[in-house]
Amino acid sequence: MELKSPNITPAGDRLTIWFDGKAVPALPDETIAAALARQNIVAIREETPGEKRGLWCGMGACYECVVQVDGKGSQRSCMTLVQDGMQVHSQRADQPPAIPLTSVPANIAPETREYDLLVLGAGPAGLSAARVAASAGATVLVIDERPQSGGQFFKPLAPSHTLHGKAPQQWHDGEQLLSATLAAGVEILQQATVWAAFSAQEIGVIWRDTSLLIRPKQLIIATGAYERPVPFPGWTLPGVMTTGAGQTLAKAYRVIPGEKVVVSGNGPLNLQFAAELVASEGQVVEVLERAAKPGIRLLRQILTMTKVAPELLLKGQHYLSILKKNRVPVSWGYEVVAAHGQDRLERITVMRVDAAGQRIPGSSREISCDVLCLGHGFIPSTDLARSLGCEQQLASTPFSTPTIKTDAEGATSVPGVYVVGDGARLGGAQIAQARGQLAGYRALSALGKTASGIDTHKLKKQVARAESFQQALWQVYQAPPVTLQAQPDETVICRCENITLGRLRSAIRQGIDTPAALKRNLRVGMGLCQGRTCAGMVAQLVSEMTRRQHHTAGFYAPRFPVRPVPIAALTFEKQEWGGHKPAITPNLARPVENSPIAPQKTDVLVIGGGVMGNCLGYYLAAGGADTLVVERDDINLQASGANAGSLHVQLLSFDFGAKAEQGGGPAAQTLPLGPLSVRLWQELEAASGESLEIKITGGLMVAETAQEMRFLEQKIALERRFGIDATLLDASELARLSPHLSPQLIGAEFCPMEGKINPLRATYVVNKLARAQGARFQRGTDVTAIERMTHGGYRVQTSRGVIEAQRVINAAGAWAAKVGEMVGINVPVKGAPLQMIVTERAVPLVDHLIAHAGRHLSLKQTAHGSLLIGGGWSAQFNPAMRLNQPCRESIEGNLWVANRVLPALSGLHMVRSWAGMNINIDGAPIIGDVPGLPGFYNAVTSNGYTLSPVVAHSLAQLILRGSSDIDLSPFHLSRFDNHRTAVNE
After folding, report:
1. How far, in Å, CA of 811 to CA of 676, rounded?
2. C-alpha–C-alpha distance, residues 350 and 360, integer Å
3. I need a labelling partner for 449 at 20 to 30 A (CA). Which of 23, 424, 595, 755 fits?
4. What does the pLDDT look like over 399-414, one tens digit per residue?
């Protein structure tokens, strides 16, 4: 419905957009969500057939309101401005993208811009910082994602409407700050998306569908906060939204999508919004506040607020008087326990809560409503600061993610990076503006410039006073603690992937009990919002069920892009090379268990809990061996868990010809192992009774030139000599087999035994099989020393205690060389951090595993519908984060090749990238014993996800019965002349 105000009118003539074939009137310069809300349309998209979803956060963070707009998918209706005749659809397209999201760049690299200072966010803190710096002569750029500056606090009236007469104080203050900022010479880019912070001097931005690279000397992050979710059954119904979303619709666009509104949660923002809505003739049924009603016990806090900022206290009283005048009840000590409805919200169930947060029996009642606005406080937006490695600290508020540790002027642990406003610590606009000025002043000092008229001592006193007010305010609004314990299993936690509390609880009970492991197993946190909504809840649930304390490293790792971005905008050709680029392989483990364990004994000790270690555990235990697998982190969290899941059988392009290691001989010797291992994977899937999402549809290595076709002819000839079924296809045969591939391709090699597997599931399933056979697994166990015992076997020192084993298997993957050193041998293994990229879901586009004869590419479509893109593009180690991360050049080059082969990618968004660890040897695995070290074995291979079953199975045969069905001599360590270092025979 349209809200009424005597001094606000529409600014222009109405236009028409089309929503699912129905005409919807709209105003120029308003968002799609606002136009739909005016018509009381809240069901904006379909998550699955018949399941409607609507606006949730209203600020572009959650991606719940994405729609298809004029053929372009995943457009946020809360951020996309209407155009006359625009066609909007709630359902995902059932055809491949017909048009690109943006044009492919004509240049060879992003446009680069340099500034003294880059400010991310045009709210109170960001504008204040920018104004101070620009006033002293610094070149300053402000980037903001929303159509207008002002942030969530000022929320200016949209250009779709005109204000007649005096502006309310909040709007006036925002206009004054913006005007002063622009007058100081600050450049502002609105509707610009920061998609990555590769370093403090390398910021990736998409603006007007164009990729920009910003290189600032100083960086201020003022990206604000988003509302903290507190889930309950039915909270995903259309019509249930955050208070911030409701306030944006009402304040900026003068609409609310219903006629019976309930506002619920905790904090004064809810009262403000309800009062503003009533003043604009919106119908508020009731306000529910989770905190107890303030009484005499809070007199000291109220006196403090009166002393420090009486005008703010008077505002609160004013809001209450408006509600009272309009007979809107304010019910203290209540919370929503369920929402009900079919295609939209129809009613809610509420209950009283006691001081411990327990629901009071007999207090349940229902309220009829069609809009429910929920405000439970905020979570600082920290993804960019976290990706830069800024030091974090735990937040005390339940369901929150870590905050960034800063000093009084916003400086972080990373030189030249400052975090201010609600993105650093929550405190409201006054604190944000003061801290913004302090950060601007500090950045100027680092630039060698001086700001005149800035009294930092006075600003810090203002901050202290404002913080004392905030402290008193939140003591008044101190709500009972919230937990997930009382929520039923059907409660959705991950809105993007529809993951329920029951599924999470079941997985945790099975030992999948870290946020990272849950993410890999269930896809929780893998949707378009990239875990913003569910991350804090998942971490809280793990803590509640395991009784382990939170740790900043225990949350989802930050990933690029921090917002989904159009693939087409990032496609830039890069120079190709041969093979993988080796790099350092430091200890990346973040163990969740590290308590000492009493001395242990076992027949076989396997070092490494990746896919190889799990397969060894299964085959050895199934053969009757007492087997213990140790892992210094958690199973499947390093190379195996970051794998893309290709099942390779044919040679990779850089394993044959001039680019190949050792002339390609070792890789060729490995060819027979591929088909055998794929069959073993199929047997493991059958034995488990669970789906590993194995799909053997064949692999295509495509060619663009006649030279690449000749390369494939020669490669096929070699592969056939080793028993690999491979065929050369011409352009027409390729087009019939995979019609969505580029028509510019002139042919391909087809290898029918290739396929794909889901590595996020498969390792865990093998782990269950191994445990069922009696194998033991121990995480958080870092092997630090290995010594031979005089009576045979090995004494292994670990971070958790001593293990004595008759036999030891080195299955440490990229870290196998380090384990080898402990027994005096050289295991010539190097790690190569490689990136993977994943897109949003799409209709079926490719059914095969796609590679390229002359470029680095691996491309496949998952059972989920997303496309996985890789192929050996290098990642880099981030020492501040202590993890490997993709680098910009690799992302751009990888996407260029992929888009060249599959043009439909231009119509999709890149959702996530991450870095895995590839293993570099000489093209062949290292399998078997070590002469002079009886009972010590190696099981290390590149192409590890494909080959782990056959390597583990063969080595288990060798250990258990003294021989293997496969001749392992080509893969023995002795093929390397320098494998011995310091072993005493």
Report:
1. 20
2. 11
3. 424
4. 888 999 999 999 999 9
Contacts of residue 929, defined as CB under 8 A and 6 or more positions apart, other chains included, come to: 935, 936, 937, 958
CB 480 within 8 Å of CB 356: yes
Contact 680, 953 (CB under 8 A): yes
| Distance of alpha carbon 685 from alpha carbon 646, whole angstroms | 16
What's the alpha-carbon Rg for the chain, to the nearest Å? 30
Q: Contact, 464 vs 149, CB < 8 A?
A: no
CA gap 494, 522 in Å, rounded: 10
What is the largest distance, in Å, between two alpha-carbon atoms of the chain?
A: 95
Give the span between the Cα atoms of 965 and 979, in whole angstroms.
Answer: 25
Cβ(954)–Cβ(964) below 8 Å: yes
Q: Kindly report, residue by residue over 295-350, the tens digit of the pLDDT.
A: 888 888 889 989 888 888 888 899 999 999 999 999 999 999 999 999 999 999 99
What token pair was written down for 651? 């040679």
Of residues 252, 250, 256, 257, the one with CA closest to residue 276: 250
Burial class (CB in 10 A: 0-12, 13-18, 19+), 961: exposed
pLDDT on residue 581: 67
The DSSP H or E segment spanning 78 is: none
Per-residue burial over 52-66, b if 16 or more Cβ lie within 10 Å, else e, is: bbbbbbbbbbbbbbb
Alpha-carbon distance of 122 to 750, in angstroms, equals 53
For residues 984 and 962, what is the distance between their CA atoms, to the nearest angstrom? 24
Separation CA 634–CA 31 (nearest Å): 45
Tokens, residue 275: 């009062």
Where on the phi/psi map is residue 234: left (φ > 0), alpha (ψ -120 to 50), or beta? left
* Gap between the Cα atoms of 394 and 397, Å rounded: 9
Using 50, 70 and 90 to split pLDDT, how confident is the model at 876?
Answer: confident
Residue owning tokens 């600014």: 11
In this prediction the pTM is 0.94
The two tokens of residue 104 are 């492919």
Cβ distance 738 to 659 under 8 Å? no
What's the CA gap between 763 and 617, in Å, rounded?
Answer: 11
Residue 472 in contact with residue 301, Cβ under 8 Å? yes
DSSP 713-777: HHHHHHHHHTT---EEEEHHHHHHHSTTS-TT--EEEEETT-EE--HHHHHHHHHHHHHHTT-EE
Residue 834 CB contacts under 8 Å (≥ 6 apart), including other chains:
580, 870, 872, 873, 874, 875, 915, 916, 917, 918
Evaluate whether 114 touches 218 at the Cβ level (below 8 Å).
no
> 455, 425 in Cβ contact below 8 A?
no
**H runs (alpha helix) in 59-135:** 124-135
CA distance 869 to 574: 16
**Confidence at 19, pLDDT banded by 50, 70, 90:** very high
